[in-house]
Amino acid sequence: MTAVSSTERSESPPTETGVMKREFTLWSAFSLAFVFVSPIVAMYGIFGLGLSTVGPAFWWGWVVTLAGQLTVAITLGVLASRWPLAGGVYQWSRRLIGPRYGWFAGWAYTWALLIALSSVAYSGAVFVAILFGLDATSPSTLVMLAVALLVLTTVVNIAGRKVVKIVATACIVAEVVGSIGVAVYLLIFGRYQDPSILTEGLQSEPGTPLMMTPFVFLVAIAGWSFLGFESASSIAEEVKNPKHAVPRAIVFSLLGVGAVILFTSFAIILAIPNLADILAASEGDPIIAVLAYHFPPVVVDAILAMFVIAFLASLVGIQAAVSRLVWANARENELPAAGWLKRLRGAGGLPSNAILLTGAVSIIALLLLQNEYVNTLLVAFTTVGFYVAFAFPVVGLAVAKIRGTWRPTERLFMGRIGTVMSWVALVWLALEITNVLWPREAADLWLINAAPLIASVAVAVVGAFVYRWSPVGRGRVESSLVLNARTSAAPVVEEEGTQ
Predict the structure, then answer these.
(1) What is the per-residue burial (b if ≥16 Cβ within 10 Å, else e) of 286-323?
(2) At 350, phi and psi to the nearest 5?
(3) Contact 414/343 with Cβ under 8 angstroms?
(4) Which of 484, 486, 462 is closest to 107 using CA atoms?
(5) Residues 56, 195: contact at Cβ < 8 Å?
(6) Which among 110, 142, 137, 109 is positioned nearest to 123, based on CA atoms?
(7) pLDDT category, 490, cuts 50, 70, 90?
(8) Which residues span the membrane (predicted)?
(9) Sign of the torsion formed by the C-alpha atoms of 170, 176, 181 and 183
(10) What is residue 80's three-state secondary structure?
(11) pLDDT tens string 422-457
(12) CA pair distance 486, 385, nearest whole angstrom
């Protein structure tokens, strides 16, 4: 065994609640975060929405959003290099400010992940429906298919880490063939448009308010695509040498996904023969119409099958992250039925009960949101939920720096650059949260306009009531200083050769 420093000991979870085996590597953490974000899911999930509402210029939204989210990824990487603990956002917020702040961070992050499960399942259901010749425009059909995907995802996660690794690897293969392979072919043999088409849709009428301009709106749409890179931190207690591996997995997964999205979407946009015809001919998604124009049916079906694999793997990654977050909250006895939720099963110590709960809640959310605007609502809910969750640790880090309580003794991820990026990330998150919540739909759709804000307020209000009855709200959890002193006595055991 290798020796551990006092700083490593301070990151250990309380041993009385059980320890999960360190069976993941840097590649495992990267691949899990990669499939969580998933270029296929991130791009194809909103490609049709961006193309129909803004035009080809919505591509630039990905460029701006990727740059902004990179500052967030670096900041979270800094925190992960100091506290590589399951639950990521929740654990960092808890240690930066205290148990109360951490509880609300965990609450917001949990709901962001749960709604993301529902959102990605619904988007994936579109491709499942098209692949099997079902009605891809029927909300009820898509909801039922999404429920089936969630059931399958739950089974995969409960099956164990080896199965999760296999699914993640299959997804990466599907991404390479289904995204990059198709893009290369289209650029060489299927190009119809000049790159100047990427400016179509940026123009706005004179006097248009800034928040209503196409450019600002397309950045709001693109916000859905770069979420989940932080999920590498959710399995930190199952990763070998997590201080080194987890921060790099967070940043590299975002950059990898971003590069694939920008390249593939660029190729598909240039391969559109006629924008109006493609939008009119699309059944559920215009990408399928583009592929059908350039490829024979058997090839389109093969590509669709790879898309479905990618969506399934993304769901597996999301559920792995949220189940570990629920488990981490329960380990601190901060949730109802904590004793049941924090129970680990099997030789590898899997949080099976937390996995079952997250699958059930996401299915219920889908069943409650059955209407013609379900995809728009899920995208909006997911986007604002993640940005708010990201804001908790980023704001917490800023407050800790101002208070002078942020005094790491070890070298952290990216050194001084990471410190500077944390302030940029704070500004970016404030702007993007405002952007996503800004009402833009027609006046007669006021409920759809206000839905993200209403949902955010509802989650906060319900959270306040639940908090009142939680151990934290009743003062039964130690302060962050006592917590750090208590956990410093619990040793971290690394496997040989992981340093």
Answers:
(1) bbbbbbbbbbeeeebeebbebbbbbbbbbbbbbbbbbb
(2) -95, 140
(3) no
(4) 462
(5) no
(6) 142
(7) very low
(8) 24-47, 59-80, 101-134, 140-159, 166-190, 210-229, 250-272, 303-327, 348-370, 376-400, 412-431, 446-467
(9) positive
(10) helix
(11) 999 999 999 999 888 887 665 555 666 677 778 788
(12) 32
The DSSP annotation for 147-207 comes to: HHHHHHHHHHHHH-HHHHHHHHHHHHHHHIIIIIIHHHHHHHH---S-GGGGGTT----TT
Maximum pairwise Cα distance, the chain: 68
Here the tokens at position 469 are 């009855």
Question: DSSP secondary-structure letter at 283?
Answer: S
Report the pLDDT averaged over residues 311-316.
85
Residue recorded with tokens 């975060």: 33
Report whether 104 contacts 463 (CB < 8 A): yes
Question: d(Cα 477, Cα 483) in Å, to the nearest integer?
Answer: 9
Strand partners, 239: 24
Torsion sign (Cα): 467, 473, 477, 483: positive
At 258, the pLDDT band (50, 70, 90 cuts) reads very high
Q: What digits encode the pLDDT tens for the residues 106-118?
A: 899 888 888 888 8
Query: Is pLDDT above 90 for 5?
Result: no
Calculate helix-pair angle for 352-368, 99-131, nearest 10 degrees: 60
Question: Whole-angstrom Cα distance, residue 225 to residue 379?
Answer: 10
Confirm if 304 and 177 have CB atoms less than 8 A apart.
no
pTM more than 0.85: no
CB burial of residue 373 (10 Å; 0-12, 13-18, 19+) = middle
CA distance 487 to 478: 11
Residue 412 DSSP symbol: -
336 versus 312: which is more confidently predicted?
A: 312
> Structural domains in the chain?
21-437+448-474 (1.20.1740.10)
Mean pLDDT of the chain: 81
Backbone dihedral region for residue 493 (phi beyond 0: left; psi -120 to 50: alpha; all else: beta)? beta
Residue 402: CB atoms within 10 Å: 9
Q: What is the pLDDT of residue 65?
A: 94
The confidence band for 67, taking pLDDT boundaries of 50, 70 and 90, is very high
Residue 111's Cβ-side half-sphere holds a number of Cα atoms within 13 Å equal to 21
Contact 13, 331 (CB under 8 A): yes
Question: Exposed, middle or buried: residue 413 (CB in 10 Å: 0-12, 13-18, 19+)?
Answer: buried
Burial class (CB in 10 A: 0-12, 13-18, 19+), 476: exposed
